[in-house]
Amino acid sequence: MTQIKLENPTSIRYGYVARKGSAVCSSAARSNLSLSQQGSIRFYTHKPRKAQRTGISDERSGALWRNTFLASIVVVAAYKYAPEPTEDAYLTRWITLYGSPRTLWLELNAKHTAMEQANSEATILLTDAKKPKVHRYRYPQTFDQISPFLTPVGMDVDTSNFVVKGDRD
Fold first, then answer.
1. Where are the chain's structural domains?
2. Which of 8, 46, 44 is nearest to 29 (CA)?
3. Record's InterPro entries (predicted)?
4. Most buried among 3, 49, 130, 147, using CB within 10 Å?
């Protein structure tokens, strides 16, 4: 604990705090101190400042230089292995070597179109299919009770081959 010896004992009334590594005095207590003691109090009242870096760093291995070096290597390699202006590029030569002729693709596309059309026709046939309409009568025995009387000319229905089916038939 750092303590400062005060010349005037009455300055204790004004108060001072002595801490480890620092000392703080009130302005009244500071006026009673000698100049050397005032300087030491002034020195201890502030925290020491960290050294400030000024200027440009002299690093030679920074990210900028590394990236510049790698980019120059890539440029030299690209220049060395690039094709001459009279030659085709590597990608063009590879496409022509492994590419299929145009007629083959036309045949494949025509075959695919025919298969898709047949598939769509089958799909339409299945989705549009409907069961035949069934007329269900509540009392089918009424067909057996047809009266030959009061039937206008030409409106007679031949029901001789007519068979009424029940629920179990």
1. 11-44, 90-128
2. 8
3. Nuo17.8
4. 3
Q: Amino acid identity, residue 5?
A: K
pLDDT per position as a tens digit, 35-68:
555 555 555 555 666 666 666 666 666 788 889 9
- 3 and 18 in contact (C-beta within 8 Å)? yes
**Is the four-CA dihedral 57, 63, 68, 72 of positive or negative sign?**
positive
Output b/e per residue, 26-61; b: 16+ Cβ within 10 A. eeebbebbeeebeeebeebeeeeeeeeeeeeeeeee
Geometric angle at alpha carbon 54, from 60 and 44, rounded to 5°: 135
Taking the model in full, what pTM does it have?
Answer: 0.28
| Number of CB atoms found within 10 A of residue 143's CB | 13
